[in-house]
């Protein structure tokens, strides 16, 4: 039982990339924090970043058979362009939350549309790195086998 965190293009540059939009936290720091949060709940978490659409599609396919029970995904620019990522997530039918560091709805019009949102369990945007932690909190509550 595990959670998969997927990061799309240019997110490897977090920390130095447009810090006024995305902040100064690095991707490694985000992943480290998520791993610790998942570990505290006894859940394994793996993360994967790619600047290539096909590599992200392949990783989603692999999630079908590697024990992934929930996906957190920041598709970055592919949010607004990728039918392929949408189809991959629909194909594996693993529940996912879409995360964005920035509030995409306060930005350029082309960022207002997502090819993924209507398939997502939920969408978190505009809360910076904290958004990932909140999305993971939700994922962990859904994975918790104890009755609530
Ligand atoms: C982003 C928002 C996208 O519009 C943009 O292309 C990104 C990052 C975010 O986390 O705010 O690369 O997904």
From TrEMBL:
* Active site: residue positions: 22, 100
Q: Which CDD domains match?
A: DHQase_II (cd00466)
Q: Which InterPro entries match?
A: DHquinase_II, DHquinase_II_CS, DHquinase_II_sf
- Keyword check for Coiled coil, yes or no: no
**Which Gene Ontology molecular-function terms are recorded?**
3-dehydroquinate dehydratase activity
Catalytic activity annotation: 3-dehydroquinate = 3-dehydroshikimate + H2O
- Positions of substrate binding: 74, 80, 87, 101-102, 111
SUPFAM superfamilies the record matches: Type II 3-dehydroquinate dehydratase (SSF52304)
Q: What class of enzyme is it?
A: lyase
Give residue numbers for the site Transition state stabilizer.
Answer: 17
| UniProt xrefs under Pfam families | DHquinase_II (PF01220)
Q: Which GO terms describe its biological process?
A: amino acid biosynthetic process; aromatic amino acid family biosynthetic process; chorismate biosynthetic process; quinate catabolic process
Which keywords annotate this record? Amino-acid biosynthesis, Aromatic amino acid biosynthesis, Lyase
What pathway does the UniProt record associate with this protein? Metabolic intermediate biosynthesis; chorismate biosynthesis; chorismate from D-erythrose 4-phosphate and phosphoenolpyruvate: step 3/7
Matching HAMAP family: AroQ
According to the record's subunit comment, the protein's assembly and interactions are: Homododecamer.
Q: Which family does it belong to?
A: Belongs to the type-II 3-dehydroquinase family.
Q: What does this protein do?
A: Catalyzes a trans-dehydration via an enolate intermediate.
Q: What is this protein called?
A: 3-dehydroquinate dehydratase
Q: Supply the source organism's classification.
A: Bacteria, Pseudomonadati, Pseudomonadota, Betaproteobacteria, Burkholderiales
């Amino acid at each position: 039982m595990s959670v998969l965190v997927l990061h799309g293009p240019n997110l490897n540059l977090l920390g130095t990339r447009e810090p006024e939009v995305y902040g100064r936290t690095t991707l490694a720091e985000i992943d480290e924090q998520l791993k610790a949060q998942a570990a505290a709940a006894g859940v394994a978490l793996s993360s994967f970043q790619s600047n290539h659409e096909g590599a992200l599609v392949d990783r989603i396919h692999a999630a079908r058979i590697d024990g992934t029970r929930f996906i957190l995904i920041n598709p970055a620019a592919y949010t607004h362009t990728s039918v392929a990522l949408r189809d991959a997530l629909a194909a594996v039918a693993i529940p996912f939350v879409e995360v964005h560091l920035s509030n995409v709805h306060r930005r350029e019009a082309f960022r207002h549309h997502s090819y993924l949102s209507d398939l997502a369990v939920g969408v978190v945007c505009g809360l910076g790195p904290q958004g990932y932690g909140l999305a993971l909190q939700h994922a962990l509550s859904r994975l918790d086998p104890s009755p609530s």
